[in-house]
Design a protein that fits this description.
It contains 33 helices and 31 strands. By secondary structure, the protein is an alpha+beta fold.
Amino acid sequence: MADKNWQAGGKNLIPARAAVCLVALVAPLGAAWGLPDSIAPANYVGSADPNTVWEMLIGGIVVCSLLAAIALWILSALRKVKRSQLRRNAFVSNALNNLSQGVVMTDPQKRIVFCNDRYLEIYGLLRSDISGSMTGPELLEMRHKRGVLDVSVEDFYKYAGNPEGLVTELPGGRSILVKYFALPNGGSVATHEDCSEQRKLSRQLASTKQFLESVLDNVPVCVAAKSIDDGRYIFANRAFERFSRFSRDNIVGKRADEIFQPETAASIDAADRTALDSPGGQFRNQFIVERGSEKRVLASFRVVARDEKNQPEFLIVLFEDITERKSLSQELENTKKFLELVVDNIPVSLIVESVSDGRYLLANRSAETILNRRREDATGLTAADIFDPREAKLIIARDEAAIRKRGLLTEEHPISTKDGLRLFLTRRMTVLDEAGEPQYLIKTPEDVTDRRQTESRMVHMAYHDGLTDLPNRASFLQALSQMIEACEGTGEEFAVLCVDLDGLKEVNDVFGHATGDKLLIEVARRMQTTARGGVVARLSGDEFGLIIDGKQPAAGMALAEQLAQALANEFQIDGKSVRTGVATGISVFPRNGADAASLLANAGAALFRAKAKSRGSISIFEPEMDQQIRDRRVLHQDLSLAIKNGELSLYYQPQAMARQTAASSEVIGFEALARWQHPIRGFVPPSDFIPLAEESGLIVEMGEWILREACREAASWPMPLQIAVNLSPAQFMHGDLVGLVHSILLETGLSPGRLELEITEGVLIEDFDRGLALLRRLKALGVRISMDDFGSGYSSLSYLQAFPFDKIKIDRAFVINLGRNPQSASIVRAVIGLGHGLEMSIVAEGVETQEQLGFLADEGCDAVQGYFLGKPLPIAQYAVLVGRTDTMEPARKTG
């Protein structure tokens, strides 16, 4: 259409140009021939000379030929102009038709003078749909009727003329960007561009950014990011807001010194500099921050994020509030790359999956181990694509359970990895959308295989002897209970054997403790072989327990004789021949007891009788032994209720500096001693119920109560005196003793340096390596460790060499004989010298006279304890000594 208009214009110009040329040519010729304008050809012919006529005729022919040539030249020029015009129009039309945008042009009367093929293609129109006189509004109205214009004609002209243009939506989801331009002559040009793909990419980018921001905002650790140039925060997640109690609008753009107090800001800046200066660009530390009026302890991890040129770009900070346990990235950049960088540097495995289809949307580097592939390769896959069918089914079921719960769900489960089958602790958190519906599932798997194996080993250690790996007393009692439950009501019998190994102390004394340990291991092996798969346990240092079923007491007697024969043979240990023997006591279920404690106690009573007879004897429990056992059993039952009934109490005996007189001996602390006021029996001596508690295992519960009560009481004293508490070897073998001491110190608020834990060498005899390791962990808490009853055993010197005790307590047996037995004085003097040489304090127990006190003071003993300075009494009797002034005088001054 535009071609026709442009050609018509060319034709109008050609005739005018030809006429001008003819006039220009004819006029000069007439003038040249001298013809007047009024001369007619007829008159001229009639009067002219024949030669003149011929000349005129020839001239006319020349003129006509010239005119004809001019006419031909003009026609040829016109054809060339027309062809050039057609080529130019075809070129312009072809160029416009090959544009990627649709183009429509109108004249000042709004008639359509051109539209290209792309326009027709975009809206599904034919060239025939556009008539020669159609206007722009008519074309728009036709499109509106056909459903390819989603706005009115008025709105089209209103909004398409804006600089940003107008986006219209076509059926099928396509989007067209229209821009309308008015021309100076009154016409117009409109461009139509398909922007569907650009809008799709824009929406995807916005969705990705929103998704990643949602993930960071729901990560349960504080995440922040700083600009390296000026140290200003450029991102803070919700956890950071909650901790700092500032909104992120008040955090982003500020430095640490504008948010936190000066000391805190200085600590933060120092940690930032350390991370920036570190070779790996990472730094972990713990520091104290002030939040309002309180101080909080934070564990932080800093990572320097680098760009493609490996230049520092951002500083990412992750931190967690660990105050209680100790006393036991909003916007860095508007791109997906930055947010993924933050997630990748979170030091925990993180997996995010879509709730709608179960596909993994995000996984950080730490999660690659559990996924067995690179995180990029896991994106878009489901659990069924990654794990084997059985594991995938279980994982999907757990995911669905967490989604239904809409909260935090924690669970342990095995997963096959490149390192084999591993146990994972997975925390699942459902993230809801704006409508409150589950949108994402965040999972943080943690490999706890090694931790659980360690716990399993600890449980095994708690129920097995560390030297022989036989079940210990607690495990043996459990086995007894299970055997009773299996046999009860069936008429079946079984026997319990208590076997005491003769000569172990002699072997230790002659060949050394290492040989004694190897002897115990060999004895355990022979017992297990002789018992042929029966239950064999090590009950104490040289006492073993066995369970044998069958006709009783014949089966028990037979096993006891076989054990005696098997253990009578020599043991070859490190080239040495070692002999030993056994004494055995037997009790039978059900005639000698209906519970584990009774059976074991009766077998122990029979063993006591056997040892009283002769070496190698075998004794079966008899009814006449029962009275003493019955009393012990009743006392044991009463003891098990004593703590709950409030019958136990603590008495406190003062410890003082060793001076020449009691009055000048300044009290430096107290030892807490358990006392039992039985509701019927009255006062029960510690010598009766402490051994019973040791044998039955009640000492563990009782020891915990004593430790907690003593620490609670000492923490209330105005005077910061020491408090000493005895620990039983059983407490080292059962439970987490270090964790218990730590938790009690935190609970009561007692300073660790005021607590002194007294142990006997039995702690190290039971399991030397384990006992030594626990002592070192206890000392690391800041408490003091004391060796009690020093000198009463046979291997104390080796223990002093193995562990740096803070204090040695000389056994009362040596102190009592001071002044009567010269050997006692020599031993006490030697122990004091030994202790001071090892930089250990010395405390003498059992000081009951002025002479004993004077001797110890003269010999340089550091502290003393005994009736001469004060008896064990309720703490109220020593109120003045601990700084209380509203109660009675201390007992030492009252008699």
